[in-house]
Amino acid sequence: MFQSRSIQLLCLVISLVSHCAYSQPSAHSQNPVYSSNPVYNQETVYSQKTVYNEQLASLYEQGNVKLNAWLSHASSDIAVHEQVTLNIEVMTDTWFTQGTKVHRVEVDNAVVLPISSFAVNSTVRIDGKVYSSQLWEIVLYPLQSGEYLIPPVALEVGVKQGRNSVEGIVMTKALSFDVHKPSVNMMPDRKWLTGKEAKIEEKWTFISQNEQSQSLEGKLKVGDAITREITLSAQDTISMLLPEVVVRPDTSENEFLFYRESTKYNDSEQRGVRQAQSFEKVTYIVNSAGDVTIPAIHIFWWDSESQTEKKLILPEQRLDVSHTFTSLLKEYKVEISVSIGFLLLLALGCVSFYRFVKTQPNNKWVSLARATYNKDIVLYETAVYQILLVHFQRRVLAVNQESVEGIGLIWQRYQKSVMREQLASGDCSRFLLVKTLLTLLMSARARATHIG
């Protein structure tokens, strides 16, 4: 009994050593397979060896060699982009004499990851018999909904039988599974992912000409740059299936300029758990003053473990941006140009008026303006009479007795009017003086029209 047990332990040790020395996947399975129309060609798969070794077939039928294949996934209903694992276990009641080679697996509309370099080795007791076991895991991710077929997978194995080594090829059975879209948000125009423990983080760096800060609470100015670093991570997925987090915003470029600096991806595996990460770095350059808004980011996340839809959110950022002197001139160059032109014209008009007043102090209009400003009634009436006479004569196109009598009649009416009494009382305003002038001018115009 003791001798039998020792032989079994010796067989197990030799099997493990043999596997470490030889066990490796096929050379053409080192890269992910992105198949759109897989063709399973049995003659190609078995071009180097016979389809099935008779001795190996006999061992398989007698139960000395066993082969199992099954699928494992997080949920009963597989979602698009959910991780699906094809498990292939080959066993022998002796030990493996060479490294097992797993041929390439191609699945339509799915991403198939490279096969691990080493199998999971163990011993299994079945019906009192101890088997050396090798477990291979092939991970794939369906890209769309529908029915999927995994064709038979070929394994080249070698086992010990007596004093000889029996080598040949064993085939798994074909497996199938269905994939569905559990959420309406799984659309090409939306950001979404499938996996577990999804997280998103961001870091802002404000860069100005004078300083660098980690906070956006400081005062921003036009031309300042804002760097945004976003890390998106999830388990049971791969980085190529993570959505692009930051896209060029729909807002006008008048608010800010957008530059994508870099995007990095990382895939890792620890204790059988796959972790995918994406690192995006973008820069916003503020292009206008006022309230500038960087929109929020929403990522829909289908949790394959809890079978629920969740959401990852990065809130919007509202920035208060002030002008620099240069940006102020650029922003309001039209208004500033118009204002400067108006001021120049106004200054030119004032200078011209000042020169006119100085050179012609006895001008009737100058006298009228001076009298109105100083409320000098005598000077006011003299200037008004002169203006009425000139205005009336221009209307009748002649200087005659009738025109003089017309002015006299107008002036007599003025002398008897209420306005004259108000002016004579000394309690008058400049507005009343202007109103009186306009009234007399209208009377002179009407009289001149009647005479003409």
Automatic annotation (TrEMBL):
Q: Does the keyword Oxidoreductase apply?
A: no
Q: Does the keyword Transmembrane helix apply?
A: yes
Q: Which UniProt keywords apply?
A: Membrane, Signal, Transmembrane, Transmembrane helix
Q: Where is the secretion signal located?
A: 1-23
Report the superkingdom from the record.
Answer: Bacteria
The family database entries (Pfam families) matched by this protein are listed as:
BatD (PF13584)
Span-the-membrane segments of this chain are 336-357
Q: Name it.
A: Protein BatD
**Classification lineage:** Bacteria, Pseudomonadati, Pseudomonadota, Gammaproteobacteria, Vibrionales
